[in-house]
């Protein structure tokens, strides 16, 4: 039996958000390029991208992902994967973005990409933490009480 080819997750709004950010590796002001940490050719979705200036993006491709990540960590003290996660969480903390995604994925939570579900969960935890309210515990079912008739 043949399995369907996995679909790449794309989001042009997220890529446009990244273009308006400063470079995560050197801090150069926008206009940045979305740099996919997992390459498009290996089915890396847009949610694996972060903002990089032209020079840092070129270095990322010239050195290769593992070597470039180590280079940026050693030379500039930047963990590019943490920065990518920070930019993703920042993007998903915008209520307008969440609304657009909810409309786009009306089929239900089973259809949402795992990155989206994770980012929304982290955002809700952060909102609860800021508000000082603990997350709601799971609901317990109450036992039915019998009322005698008669």
In words, what does this structure look like?
- The structure is a single chain.
- The chain has helices spanning 12-19, 54-63, 65-76, 80-92, 95-104, 114-131, and strands at 33-36, 49-52.
- With 150 residues, it is mainly alpha-helical.
- The chain has one domain (12-130).
- It has a two-stranded antiparallel sheet with strand order 1-2.
- The radius of gyration is 21 Å and the shape is globular.
- The mean pLDDT is 79.
Number of strands: 2
What strand order characterises the main sheet? 1-2
Shape: globular
Q: Main β-sheet: number of strands, strand sense, barrel status?
A: 2 strands, antiparallel
Tally of structural domains: 1
Tell me the strand percentage band.
5-15%
Order of helices and strands: HEEHHHHH
**Rg computed from alpha carbons, rounded to a whole number of angstroms:** 21 Å
Q: Determine the fraction of residues in helical runs and give it as a percent range.
A: 40-55%
Mean pLDDT: 79
Structural class: mainly alpha
Tally of alpha and pi helices: 6
Distance between the termini: 64 Å
Low-confidence stretches: none
């Amino acid at each position: 039996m043949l399995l369907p080819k996995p679909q790449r997750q794309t989001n042009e709004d997220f890529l446009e958000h990244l273009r308006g950010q400063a470079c995560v590796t050197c801090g150069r002001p926008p206009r940045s390029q979305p740099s996919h940490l997992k390459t498009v050719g290996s089915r890396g979705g847009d949610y694996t991208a972060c903002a990089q200036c032209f020079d840092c993006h070129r270095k990322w491709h010239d050195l290769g992902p593992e070597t470039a990540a180590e280079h940026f960590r050693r030379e500039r003290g930047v963990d590019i994967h943490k920065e990518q996660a920070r930019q993703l969480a920042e993007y998903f903390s915008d209520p307008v973005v969440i609304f657009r995604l909810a409309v786009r994925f009306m089929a239900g939570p089973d259809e949402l990409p795992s990155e989206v579900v994770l980012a929304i969960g982290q955002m809700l935890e952060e909102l609860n933490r800021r508000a000082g309210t603990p997350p709601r515990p799971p609901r317990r079912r109450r036992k039915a009480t019998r009322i005698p008739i008669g």
